[in-house]
What we know:
Strand order of the largest sheet: 5-2-1-9-21
Bound molecules: flavin-adenine dinucleotide
Mean pLDDT: 93
Amino acid sequence: MTLNRRAFIGTGAAAAAVLSAPHVRAASDGKPRVIVIGGGAGGATAARYIAKDSNTEIDVTLIEPTRMYYTCFFSNLYIGGFREISSLGHSYGALAKQGVNVVHDWAVGVDRAARTVTLAGGAVLPYDRLVLSPGIDFVDGAVPGWDVSAQNKMPHAYKAGSQSELLKAQVEAMPEGGTFCMVAPPNPYRCPPGPYERVSMVAHRLKEINPTAKILVADPKPKFSKEGLFREAWDTHYAGMVEWLGPDFGGDKVSVNADDMTVDIDGEVVHVDVCNVIPAQKAGRICELAGVNEGNWAPVDGHTMQSRVDENVHVLGDSSNQGDMPKSGFSANSQAKVCAMAVRGALTGSKVFPAKFSNTCWSLLGSENGVKVGATYEAMDDKIAEVEGFISAVGEDAAMRKATYEESLGWYEGITSDIFG
Ligand SMILES: Cc1cc2nc3c(=O)[nH]c(=O)nc-3n(C[C@H](O)[C@H](O)[C@H](O)COP(=O)(O)OP(=O)(O)OC[C@H]3O[C@@H](n4cnc5c(N)ncnc54)[C@H](O)[C@@H]3O)c2cc1C
């Protein structure tokens, strides 16, 4: 057949379109496949937005072992007596209705060359893009004497649900005038103000039921998030109750003995009634198994949240090493939307806009006494960089603190429906 000029241009354009089309492996029904591992703040948001915004053009499977996700955000408020545990639980029914194929199983392996994920149940699922948002795991041996087999005696309560319930029950069962000890984590870790909001909430609860009890914090860090605001609250509302030991006083040289309920702080052994051990953290273990970590965390390109090790993999939330954003639910949700847009762009050719992110971390200090810290961020080539930040002021009046608390309640309702539909 002789090609006339018109036919030649048409063929050339079609060939060019094929060459520039994203490289995808068609599923049996012809749709590209995305697998999301982890149905928390980052993963559930990404799965929902990819399914919703691609208008079912992309086949989305979410792998999450639990049927009910309990938010770490606001779990301290539960410990303080401000929330019921049921108010923190979210199921995956709405995501399923919105077109996400929700599989309740553990991902136990990733073969990046074959582009498959293996589940504990034995299934092997192929993907065109993989999104990893498995949250955190703990660094083995970070607190000598502690490992996860001790978590019932010395709970971390840094993954919410039964651990939060256990810690609250232990606080409420403390003997009169007893000691609550927190072993705080080194940087970087999930939710920078989280341990100190927890100290405030435990103090609030103890002031109500056990006012002569004491709180001891052993901290490896010389300073911590919102320090001025927390210290002001501890001095004003919980005077004489909280003792904080930084590295100058041995807070970085701690071991524990769960059988004896003792904590050794730089050679001084203290008997405690409750011990909340929050160990050093690392990316959720599946990131390690997938081979996308450098050190404890998975480096990503902030423009797309693509792994710097493998462009077919995106890593979100706490597991990612992205730059200036704190490891928070707000950050994970914000990163998930950037990831969802990038995944759709790559697989369907939809328009991709420049990545912008935001975060606010609220903390409750006592009844209707809320404070916040936050910032906006932009993707740069080397990292996600902070553009502009803000923080509540020390000495604010009660009306401002109440307004901040109410803002946080609205945020919780808004973000959980954005994540879980
Ligand atoms: C006490 C406390 C208070 C906090 N307060 C706030 C706050 O006020 N505001 C805020 O924004 N953030 C807060 N955070 C932080 C927030 O909870 C986390 O940053 C956020 O949940 C991170 O989202 P993620 O998607 O990375 O991980 P997660 O939300 O932890 O989700 C990870 C999911 O992955 C699943 N998973 C793990 N491994 C696998 C696997 N192999 N296969 C399948 N599934 C897997 C897990 O079951 C889990 O559901 C707080 C945290 C704590 C501990």
